[in-house]
Amino acid sequence: MTTVQFVVATAMSLFVFVLLANFVVDLYARGAIRAAVDEGARAGAPVDASLADCERRADDALDDLLGGAMRRGVQVRCVADFGTIRARADVVLPGWIPGIVPDWWFSITGTAISEHDP
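RESULT FIELD:
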């Protein structure tokens, strides 16, 4: 009887460990995505820059910081309005245990003030 209890306790401990590890990795991904959209917005702010520069820089930063399924779940768009450049990332981070750990959906926006000719 003790062996069954030990196996169940071990399985539950490993399950909790996986949940915590998934949480920590998702927090890292959120920070990486935040850095990428901020960098993209800054890249689109100079006078001679375009929205394509913003999106390209954000995508390059994401490629450097994230990989695999996490990277596939991130879509970045840049918009210019009212003297600012906004880079927005719509994100879906998949849970590691399908059906038990839900996917995490969120959006992050980075903003920079556009430079203009004097």
